[in-house]
Design brief:
single chain; about 160 residues; alpha+beta; seven-stranded mixed beta sheet; globular
């Protein structure tokens, strides 16, 4: 297995199907445009056949207003936060239920921590579908108080997650 940045000349996006049309469409039609515009970066998981995408995730930056966070966290910061955002994460139907989602998430957390050494980001954010919410929460993400499908993970927790894996 290998996780690397999406390369449209190397990776075949057309055959990817995770069962969620919006996630399929993002990989096939949007990810390349976002990359060109420096809006996000997409990383793909492949096997021996490096053109076949088993799964992917995208990373970007986002802004979180302090009033969105629990008070015990928001009082630590002077203003809105710029955070790492896991915008999308999906595994092809042919490879689901094999732990690949966790491998992708761990890699996204690792890259978020690494990038925070250059551009400070105090937490990782994810907007999730109801079906995936439990997956993220089991990995240490917490709910935003007013937005139940928007989750966050402070970087200190993310570092502990990496140490535990």
């Amino acid at each position: 297995m290998k996780i690397e940045r999406l390369d449209k000349n190397k990776h075949n996006r057309n055959h990817f199907d995770c069962g969620e049309p919006a996630l399929n469409n993002y990989l096939k039609a949007v990810s390349g445009q976002h990359d060109k515009k420096n809006l996000s970066r997409t990383f793909v998981l492949t096997g021996k056949n490096e053109s076949q995408i088993w799964g992917y995730y995208s990373l970007a930056l986002c802004t979180v207003e302090l009033d969105q966070l629990p008070e015990k966290i928001s009082k630590k910061y002077p203003s809105a936060l710029h955070c790492a955002l896991i915008g999308r994460l999906a595994v092809s139907k042919a490879f689901q239920r094999q732990g690949l989602g966790e491998s992708l998430l761990i890699d996204a957390i690792r890259k978020s921590i690494e990038s925070s050494e250059l551009i400070p980001t105090p937490m990782i954010i994810v907007d999730t579908k109801n079906s995936a919410k439990k997956f993220y929460m089991n990995m240490g993400f917490q709910e935003f108080p007013q937005t139940k499908n928007k989750l966050f993970m402070p970087l200190a927790v993310a570092t502990d997650v990496l140490v535990a894996t």
